[in-house]
Amino acid sequence: WQDEKNHDQWTVGGWQNSDSGLEQHIRGRGSCLTQSNFSMERDVWYALSLRVSGNEITACVNGEIINRIAISPLKIRPLYLAGSVEEATGDVILKAVNVTETRVCAEIESPCSRYEAEILTGAPEDGNTLDAPDTVSPARTEGGREALSRFVFPAHSVTVLRLKA
């Protein structure tokens, strides 16, 4: 336990009393590490034990292991990418997510003559409201092949690049 937004959690009899799971919360975002089927009965006492040894967590009910996980250190990469080709046009569509607090400059090699980009940026806690509906909104840009040689992905951004055939 570090704080409300950063901790590990063991849930027993969760999800309508049908499972047990170990969860990890980092910066307020939860992730299920391991899950198993388990339900608790009313008016029955259970011996629960949770052992932490190094990076391994073991959860037991009545001496039986129901969850075990070795947690690997979180390794955040600066840029996550996915790509596809639109068959109708031959355009290459590249989707990039920069999860870091700094911009990432990358070289994109492509035979395309030009590109169009739609970029969504904002701090992780940003969100749109009725009073401020455009706090997080896409920006559109375009350019030629030469601009791709040093393309900048802004901090905390999602970019969709369409490399024109």
Structural class: mainly beta
Order of helices and strands: EHEEEEEEEEEEEE
Q: What is the count of DSSP helices, taking H or I runs of 4+ residues?
A: 1
Tell me the fraction of residues in β-strands, as a range.
over 45%
Largest sheet: 5 strands, antiparallel
Average pLDDT across residues?
A: 91
Contiguous uncertain segments of 5+ residues? none
The dominant shape is: elongated
Q: Write down the Rg.
A: 23 Å
How would you characterize this protein structure?
By secondary structure, this protein is an all-beta fold. It contains one helix and 13 strands. The protein has one helix at 14-17; strands at 7-13, 19-26, 29-37, 48-53, 56-61, 64-70, 80-85, 92-98, 104-106, 114-121, 139-144, 151-153, 157-164. The longest helix is centred in the first third of the chain and has 4 residues, at 14-17. It starts with 6 loop residues before the first strand and ends with a strand.
In short:
This protein is an all-beta fold and 165 residues long. Helices cover 2% and strands 51% of the residues.
Give me the secondary-structure topology.
Elements (H helix, E strand, L loop, with lengths): L6 E7 H4 L1 E8 L2 E9 L10 E6 L2 E6 L2 E7 L9 E6 L6 E7 L5 E3 L7 E8 L17 E6 L6 E3 L3 E8 L1
Antiparallel strand pairs: 1-2, 2-3, 4-5, 5-6, 7-8, 8-13, 9-12, 10-11, 10-13
